[in-house]
Every structure is written in C-alpha cells, then in structure tokens.
Amino acid sequence: MELSSKLLQNAVEAFSSLPGIGKRSALRLALFVLKKDENQVNSFAEAIKNLRANIKYCSKCHNLSDTEICSICSNTMRDDSLLCVVESIKDIIAIEETGQYRGYYHVLGGIIDPLNGIGPEELNIESLLNRTKNEDIEELIMAISPTIEGDTTIFYLTEQLKNTEIKISTIARGVSFGGELEYADGVTLGRSIMARTSYKR
C-alpha cells in the first residue's frame, strides 16, 4: 500500500503491527486519528506511553498491576482458601467477567510445551509452589485451556503437590477440548468454574 504521506505511512505501519489489524484497518484507524481533536490524540498517546512505562506485574500472583501487589491480591474480602491457576492474564479477565469466582489467582505465564522449548523453569511454577506452602490454600482450581499441553501442565503440577493436603480440581469440560479459555463465552466459563471437578492424582 503506497500512500502520499510518509507520516501517514508510518502511522499505518504502527497500527498494522497490532494483532488482528491489517493494512486497511490500520489506514482507517490512522485517518480516524486525524479527525480527532489534538488533545484527545495526545491523551491517547500518553495513556499508551504510561501503560508501557509504568505497568507492573504483581509480585504475588503475576497479574498486571499499578502497584507491587495487584488489587485482587490486596482485596481481603476474597476467599483465601481458593487459588485459581491460569495460563495468562487474559484468563483472569475472562473469569472475573463471569462474576462466579471470589478466590485468588496465580498466573503461570504459559503452559508446559516441550516442542516449543517451554519447560517448568520458564513458568511461574516455583512461586506457585511457595504459595501453597506459605498460604492457607485448601483448593487449587486448574483453569487451564483444555489442550494436550494444558493437561500436561496440570499433571506436572499435581505431581509436585501429591504429598500435600491441597485439593486439586479442574474446570468442567463445558469448555471444549482443544479450545482456548479466553475465547469461551462468559456463561460457559462461569458454569465451568462452578462445576469444577476433582483432579485424580
């Protein structure tokens, strides 16, 4: 796509680097920005800069946070006996939108996938195991996408915790096998959390 303005071309390239944004969509976004008030554009750009410069990862659960401890971990009204183990931050957002879960979370940062060089050492597993030793956790809910790699991850974690009294459960298979958790609709995901089943050790 050849444009008459190098500035516009650069903006299109920037927008098209975002996931799911093709060149035509990027052009529409760039032209939309040109129509907006300069203060609005500056506020938008400042929000993106601040996000990149100042966002933190919660030192406890690895969720995104403005401070060292995220707002979920610092909420004392939640059930501290429940810990929901998820693959990514997007999964926390999806589960929170269901309104069906009031415990805490732990973000693994991925799943075990040897074919792509991802082993337990690359994930936030050690900090999870430390939490099971230092917190009054009674149940770990494995809210991990139902794939071969997801099941491998659940099996590995279960083996690491086999000598503990902690109950391990998985979300109900209302979420289809092979599907990504973040794409499940809210009703299905909420029911899967509520109808979780014990994981056989």
Helix and strand arrangement:
Blueprint: H1 6-16, H2 23-35, H3 38-54, E1 56-57, E2 64-65, E3 79-86, H4 89-98, E4 103-107, H5 125-134, E5 139-143, H6 148-160, E6 167-170, H7 186-194, E7 197-198
Parallel strand pairs: 3-4, 3-5, 5-6
Antiparallel strand pairs: 1-2, 6-7
Q: What does it look like?
A:
This protein is of the alpha/beta class and 201 residues long. It has two domains: 6-54, RecR Domain 1 (Helicase, Ruva Protein, domain 3), CATH 1.10.8.420; 64-198, Dna Topoisomerase Vi A Subunit, Chain: A, domain 2. Helix content is 41%, strand content 14%. The chain has helices at 6-16, 23-35, 38-54, 89-98, 125-134, 148-160, 186-194; strands spanning 56-57, 64-65, 79-86, 103-107, 139-143, 167-170, 197-198. It has a five-stranded mixed β-sheet. Strand 1 and strand 2 (64-65) form a beta hairpin. Helix 1 crosses helix 2 and helix 4 (89-98) packs across helix 7 (186-194). The longest helix is centred in the first third of the chain and has 17 residues, at 38-54. The mean pLDDT is 89.
